[in-house]
Design goal:
There is one protein chain. The chain is α+β, with helices and mostly antiparallel strands and 130 residues long. It has one domain: Electron Transport, Fmn-binding Protein, Chain A (Pnp Oxidase, Chain A). It is built from three helices and eight strands; from the N terminus they run H-E-E-E-E-H-E-E-H-E-E. Strands 1, 2, 3, 4, 5, 6, 7 and 8 form an eight-stranded antiparallel beta sheet that branches. The model has no long low-confidence stretch (mean pLDDT 97).
Length: 130
């Protein structure tokens, strides 16, 4: 799990794919956190991405570091506890201008039943179960 976290953190930006009815939706994200041995992302409950994940939690993350890429697929599960929200905001303090661990909008979600595939142009893909 740490390897996946480190890769995504190094990339800075990753792309999150969700499903909106029968239409895929992809957008850039920049938050990745490790809390209680789970990988978390952060968004706002008022955003379409949150609504899509509540309707269908299956998602995929993709990132490229210039030499290799990763695809992480699984379910993103909402965690309404204050502790993971606080942890996320401490690691991304610039978000405190828009979010609070106590507000009704801040949402953190953790990956469940996830698989990561590391790929590059010169090596065979390598799969890691989270």
């Amino acid at each position: 799990m740490k390897e996946v976290y480190d890769f995504l953190k190094e990339c800075g930006t990753y792309y999150l794919a969700t499903v909106d009815g029968d239409q895929p939706r992809v957008r850039p994200f920049g938050t990745i956190d490790m809390f209680e041995d789970k990988l978390y992302i952060q968004t706002g409950k008022i955003k379409d991405v949150s609504k899509q994940l509540q309707a269908n939690p299956k998602a995929e993350i993709c990132a490229f570091n210039g030499k290799a890429w990763i695809r992480v697929s699984g379910k993103l599960i909402r965690d309404d506890r204050i502790e993971p929200k606080q942890h996320m905001l401490e690691n991304y303090p610039h978000l405190k201008a828009m979010y609070s661990a106590e507000d009704e909008n801040t949402e953190v979600l953790y990956l469940e039943d996830a698989t990561a595939v590391f790929s590059s142009f010169g090596e065979e893909p390598r799969t890691v179960k989270l």
